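Table S2 (text version). Query chain:
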Amino acid sequence: MALVLPPVIERELRVSARRRGTYYARFIAALGLLLFWLLIISTNSRSSPTRLGHEVYTAMGILALAGCVFGGFLLTADSIAEERREGTLGLLFLTDLKCFEVVLGKLVAAWVQGIFSLVAAIPILALPLLMGGVTGAEFARFILVSILTLFWSLTIGLVVSAFAQDARHAMALSFLLVVILAGVCPALWWAQKLTWNNPALDFLLWPSPWFALTKSFGNFFSVRSGPADFWHATITVGSTAFVCLASAVLILPQSWRSAGERPASQRKKLARATAIRSSRALLNLNPMHWLGLRDRRIGQISTRLLLLLALLWGSTLLLSLLFKNRVHELFTISFFILFGVHVLLKVAISFETTRRFNQDRASGALELLVVTPLPVGALLFGHQRAIHEQFRGPRRILIFMNVASIIFAGVFHQTLDMHWKDYLVFVETYCGGILVLYADVAALGWVGMWAGLTSPKQNRAVMRTIARVLLPPWIVILLLVFIQPNINGPGSAAFVFGSWFLFSLVISIWNRWVIQRKLLQRFRETLAQNS
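Corresponding structure-token output:
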């Protein structure tokens, strides 16, 4: 007997089946993990099979869960909002479809691509079972956590997409919610544990899939509180996903009915934002530069968010001076906060730099700009200049945090019990972070333009931009940590961080050079092929 599905779910499944990305995603997921496994095996041949199997399983588990955490919401963050912008959402509600059928249709379409990638990666993830060091129960717990995390990430994107209008804001807000639940909550728990250590606040760890992954490992699950912590975390992650799914179903009718009231207020805000001080200034501006600076909201939001994170970072450093028995732990927290700020800013730039070209190509506005006397080079460099100016404030805040960290470590090196070799490693780390920041911002600008020009949707453009510029260095640092796990001295740490920064600079410079040449030489041809 044939399975009868609701029409919208059947339609979304057919669209996913015809999409090439559905097949490429699972192929890339399996191939990437296989290459990762082979590289770790070849560089750790002297380790015992049991220890090596556990290390490989941990590394690949972290990589796979990161894909579930950050890949899921990108598939759904703009799914419903896109239907609303194109005017097809109202047509769906003219039929006898229910709200939950529309939401489930979008969820199933994204779930297919995500779960296929996970299923393709499972045989590679199971290879450490043959090597030893990993039990079947431990592997089963990891699969449970991965499936729940993917469902959790997809539903977060759906609930934001149910009321968001713009793809950029939908993806940014989804990313922020994921970071809060997966990273900020555990960071708050860590901070309170180092200060007053209240066991009643242990629930802050439960919404994080990373905590569930950690407790799924055998050495953590086997302790007395391990099973309870694992099930608390998995139940909380699953419950959060169902709450998000139900919220999307409840929010969608209200947001759709009030959709007609929003453009008027948005047009007023846009009119105020696009007011030009003088006609002479407008004549002197590059049109693409002016378009890029017309809406500065993402830059302003990034500045405010970075100021809040800088306040948290500064508070952590001050607490390290007050609680001298916890100085090393609090200084480590400040280091990870600073690293997270770097990642947040680069992801925000990826959202913004892909938006203009992707939206203007879809609306046909980019073709109108191309037929004007404006040279292609002026158009591209104007957009790049707008991105740099829009994120100038956040970059300055981030550079200040890096320089202040160097000064803090130098002034209070005795409190931190830091020798001069350790201090040189910190100087290398923070100075390298500044260099990589400038290189990544430049590369993200050019790669984002190319991805926005060639991708049918902005969420795919963002994923392509991040995968090309930011993902390779993250994989390399994970490899370096597991290739050289015993970082027991300044020399080992300097090698790991130096190799990471060098590889990041090479990747960014290479991407900028290659994509800049492509855009300058093949812009009109590429635009014609993707229009």
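Notes on Table S2: The chain is about 85% helix and 0% strand. Residues 259-283 have pLDDT under 50 and may be disordered.
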